[in-house]
Amino acid sequence: xxxxxxxxxxxxxxxxxxxxxxxxxxxxxxxxxxxxxxxxxxxxxxxxxxxxxxxxxxxxxxxxxxxxxxxxxxxxxxxxxxxxxxxxxxxxxxxxxxxxxxxxxxxxxxxxxxxxxxxxxxxxxxxxxxxxxxxxxxxxxxxxxxxxxxxxxxxxxxxxxxxxxxxxxxxxxxxxxxxxxxxxxxxxxxxxxxxxxxxxxxxxxxxxxxxxxxxxxxxxxxxxxxxxxxxxxxxxxxxxxxxxxxxxxxxxxxxxxxxxxxxxxxxxxxxxxxxxxxxxxxxxx
Amino acid sequence: xxxxxxxxxxxxxxxxxxxxxxxxxxxxxxxxxxxxxxxxxxxxxxxxxxxxxxxxxxxxxxxxxxxxxxxxxxxxxxxxxxxxxxxxxxxxxxxxxxxxxxxxxxxxxxxxxxxxxxxxxxxxxxxxxxxxxxxxxxxxxxxxxxxxxxxxxxxxxxxxxxxxxxxxxxxxxxxxxxxxxxxxxxxxxxxxxxxxxxxxxxxxxxxxxxxxxxxxxxxxxxxxxxxxxxxxxxxxxxxxxxxxxxxxxxxxxxxxxxxxxxxxxxxxxxxxxxxxxxxxxxxxxxxxxxxxxxxxxxxxxxxxxxxxxxxxxxxxxxxxxxxxxxxx
Lengths: 285, 328
What we know:
The complex is a heterodimer of chains A (285) and B (328). With 285 residues, chain A is mainly α. Chain A has one domain. Chain A has 14 helices and no strands. In chain A, helix 8 (124-142) crosses helix 9 (144-158), helix 8 (124-142) packs across helix 11 (167-194) and helix 11 (167-194) packs antiparallel against helix 13 (233-244). The model of chain A has no long low-confidence stretch (mean pLDDT 87). Chain B folds into 2 domains: 8-238, Rossmann fold (3-Layer(aba) Sandwich); 244-309, Alpha-Beta Plaits (2-Layer Sandwich). In chain B, helix 4 crosses helix 5 and helix 5 (123-136) packs across helix 6 (152-164). Chain B contains 12 helices and 13 strands. The longest helix of chain B has 16 residues, at 182-197. The model of chain B is unreliable at 1-15 (pLDDT under 50). Chain B has 328 residues and is of the alpha/beta class.
């Protein structure tokens, strides 16, 4: 047998913090995503409405401009204003998720790349977190961040008293968008992990929302109940956001039921990811 | 046959676990399907080849030692580190899968660099280690090119670079010579030797048996999830009693030599070689045969060379695994 003498020295310097390593995946994914001009163009379009809202807020407080329209104030900046803002931006966020989400995990699974990621000091949780952070950032940039900027603009124009009286709206924007982003991200990642073809995964994401809504209507009609809405993710999100802004529910299920259903949906998505995001998929039978 | 067929295993059990890869009664079942069963190994530094047909458990064994799958039973220690401690394990282990999986649009350099960042190396160190690894696999000229444009051989080498880039003590390489042309193959084998000489453990799986012979310090032969033999290949061959040893003797009078050896009961067969310049002898007792050969040499037969003809991996593989497979 050969005699071997270890003759090299391993690296003895410092390492980057463990918590920050998942950002490597996010950083490279961003580079890849914005190579697509279509996505970049769409992403820019997502800011038109917030920009329009910011201009409207300015006009709303500009006396000389208002007098030109012969009005004292064009519209009231209240819960309804921010709720409709979130409604529009949620639509943009959903389409953005349908474009970006399906391509996040499926290529790695299709190419057997997970062993490469996981053969590092890098866990499955960090991998999912790295992929999820892409959607968290993108969706945050077009939902709660511009929402809070609008809130700050209105606060600066209306004064501190308005801000203090309406601080609940800021929390509503943040928490409402937060739960929406979480549901969109987890759902798209779970679908991406289970459906390897990007186009099919995108279609499945749309299907979960639209087919779920249709199925809810059928259940409600056949069983003469309102509980069918518990599988309608769109309505669940609307109910939760409405409750955060103090609006009465419009679809007939309570806010607490909607919260529980959304949390259950998130847990189900995490379970799907746990099952699928593994170094090696074991196929028995 | 099951379990080790030579003394390598028993000799090494007493060695400190800190310098070996140790499997103790390890089994892995995928539901009802057997991956590997009751594996006991203690792998020393150097080049160790895993040899066996498809489904014999080679990749399962590699995945077990890298912690990518967990054993159903038993314990594994890689240089004293448990595979379920990835933060420590993957500082010591580099893994190269058999799959080509490269993130889209990346250059060879970016590929290595990004994985080094996942290890937690700072930017400057990652740059340095990435370039060093790329140099080692002779891809410096192509480092800035996209991997999508690489040939099969270049992809194999960049995969190898990502496995060695963080200077691991253990390299686990699944079919690392696939797709390499002869020149690059020779360079890669030389790299393996250099790494082994530095004191690394290299665990290699391969189907190309003559290469296993050339590369390996020791082999582990697997069949149907069981280790059927392990150790240095000549030692393994010596232990296989049911197959007579084949010895090729090159001499000036092959006919006379054949007639002289054939009378002995421990010689099973003596056959003139096809080129008529030697005799292929099968014997059940190599030591007695070599003594006989000395006497024949003193009696006027000029012997040019004596060489075992079946102590290579291919022969051992056929004796141990081929026969089992054929009886299925």
